[in-house]
Design goal:
With about 170 residues, the protein is an alpha+beta fold. It is about 25% helix and about 25% strand. Bound molecules: zinc ion.
């Protein structure tokens, strides 16, 4: 089921999400909803807080559905390695219309569980490393806007506040 995507300013996007402890039918439904909503957007990643669910679950597919093996679901992820640096333009389904260059590590190794609770380890570089970090940030209540400094961040926040006042956000 496609769910509404919450936008910057919504409480659940700015709160650390809870660890998943139960791998039941509700969790399977949540993962399916995240996948449906991500592809429909369309986007290359989506985290549970973006649809208002307080659980450490995210889905990523940097092929946007073109590669049948491209879909990754990570639950309770933790970084075990982070190295290097990349500087790329980034956007977010919870901040439509805004982009900014974000500094992130170039390569990461993430450990977590899959949708059935089995342990998995994901090694990623370039865009996949960026997408993983972006989604894990969501689980920690952070948006890419929060990673910006100075005027760029102020500019985006001011424009969002203005749109909110005008009822356009
Ligand atoms: Zn995002």
């Amino acid at each position: 089921m496609i769910r509404p995507i919450l936008r910057y300013g919504d409480r659940s996007l700015h709160t650390r999400a809870a660890e998943v402890t139960t791998f039941d039918a509700d969790l399977q439904q949540l993962v399916d909803d995240l996948i449906d909503t991500m592809y429909a957007a369309p986007g290359i990643g989506l985290a549970a807080p973006q649809i208002g669910v307080d659980q450490r679950v995210c889905v990523i597919d940097i092929s946007a559905g073109r590669d049948p093996k491209g879909l990754i679901c990570v639950i309770n992820p933790v970084f075990v390695e982070r190295e290097g640096m990349q500087l790329e333009e980034e956007g977010c389904l919870s901040a439509p219309g805004f982009n900014a260059t974000v500094v992130r590590p170039a390569r990461v190794v993430v450990r977590g569980l899959d949708r059935h609770g089995a342990e998995q380890s994901v090694e990623a570089a370039a865009l996949l490393a960026r997408a993983l970090q972006h989604e894990i940030d969501h689980l920690d209540g952070l948006l890419f806007v929060d990673r910006l400094r100075g005027i760029k961040r102020d500019q985006i926040v001011r424009r969002i506040q203005k749109m909110k006042r005008a009822g356009q956000w």
